[in-house]
Amino acid sequence: MVEGFHSQIRQIKVNGIREFATPNLVEGSNVYGEKLVKSGDEEFRIWDPFRSKLAAALKKGLRDFPVNPSDKILYLGASTGTTVSHISDLVGNKGLVFAVEPAVRVARELIENVASRRKNVIPIIEDARRPDSYFSVFGDVDLVYCDIAQSDQTDIAIKNCKAFLKNKGIMLIIIKTRSIDVTMSPYSVVAMESEKLKKSNFHINQTINLDPFDKDHALIHATYSPGNGK
Ligand code: SAM
C-alpha cells in the first residue's frame, strides 16, 4: 500500500518498522494492548497485523480499502472487537459499526471494552445465520465484513449481503480454508468459495493470501451488484 492512499490511516515507525495506525476515537484508551502514539496533535493506535486480518491484508497489498468516514458497516464475527475497534476509528462518530457476535462470553468483552466506550459500535448478540433477527440494523450498509470461521461462512455472508448490503457495496470475507475443507488445498478452497460468490452477483476485485500473518487464510474483496434481484 502506498503512503497517502487512505486519508485516515497512517504509517508510523515502531522500533524501526513502519506499522499501520488508526486515529484513536477514544483518546488515552486502548483495546487489546496496542501501542498509542502521538503524531502531531492526534493520537493513533498501532494496528497489529498479527491480531487483525484487515491490517494483515493492508500489509499484503490490499489495493482498495473500503472503509471511509461516515460509513455504515455490518461486521459478522466481531469477537472481542479487535478489528471492530479500528473500523470504529475509521468510520468516526458519524459512522456506525453493527457488530454481530453470538458467543455470550466473548460478546461481554466486546461490550465492556469496545461498545460501551464507542458510541458508533452497536453490538448484536445473534447468530449471523439469522439476519432477520438483527432488530437494530436499519437501512442498507456500505460494507459487509465477514470473519466467522464456519464451513458455511460464504453462504452466511451472502445471506447478510442480500438482506443489508447496498447495490455496488463491498463485501470483505476472510476465508479460513481449514474450516471449510481440510482435505483440499487452500488454493482450491478459495477458488470454490469465489465461484459461489460469482454465482450470487459478486464481482471479485482482489484475493489476498494472508500468510505469514495468518496461515491458510485469504481475504476476498468483492463488489455486490444484485441489479433488480435484491
Ligand atoms: N473478526 C475478529 C477480529 O478480527 O477481531 C475475529 C473473529 S474470530 C476469528 C471468529 C468469530 O466468529 C468468533 O468470535 C465466533 O464466536 C464468531 N462466530 C462463529 N460463528 C458465528 C456465527 N454463526 N455468527 C456470527 N459469529 C460467529
Tell me the layout of helices and strands.
Elements: E1 10-14, E2 17-23, E3 36-39, E4 42-46, H1 53-59, E5 72-76, H2 82-91, E6 96-100, H3 104-115, E7 121-124, E8 141-146, H4 153-164, E9 165-176, H5 177-180, H6 186-199, E10 202-209, E11 217-224
Parallel strand pairs: 5-6, 5-8, 6-7, 8-9
Antiparallel strand pairs: 1-2, 2-4, 3-4, 9-11, 10-11
Bound molecules: S-adenosylmethionine (SAM).
Commentary on this structure:
With 230 residues, the protein is α/β, with parallel strands linked by helices. Helices cover 26% and strands 30% of the residues. It contains six helices and eleven strands. The protein has helices at 53-59, 82-91, 104-115, 153-164, 177-180, 186-199; strands at residues 10-14, 17-23, 36-39, 42-46, 72-76, 96-100, 121-124, 141-146, 165-176, 202-209, 217-224. Strands 7-6-5-8-9-11-10 form a seven-stranded mixed sheet, with helices on both faces. Strands 1-2-4-3 form a four-stranded antiparallel sheet. β8 (141-146), α4 (153-164) and β9 (165-176) form a beta-alpha-beta unit. It is globular and about 50 Å long. The protein starts with 9 loop residues before the first strand and ends in a 6-residue tail after the last strand. The structure holds S-adenosylmethionine (SAM).
Instruction: Kindly state the percentage of residues in helix.
Output: 25-40%
Tell me, rounded to a whole number, the average pLDDT: 94
Radius of gyration: 17 Å
What general form does the structure show?
globular
Which hetero compounds are present in the coordinates? S-adenosylmethionine
Strand arrangement in the largest pleated sheet? 7-6-5-8-9-11-10
- Cα separation of the termini: 33 Å
- Tell me the fraction of residues in β-strands, as a range: 25-35%
Question: What is the structural class?
Answer: alpha/beta
Largest sheet: 7 strands, mixed
Quickly count the helices: 6
Order of H and E elements: EEEEHEHEHEEHEHHEE
Low-pLDDT runs of 5+ residues are none
Say how many strands there are. Answer: 11
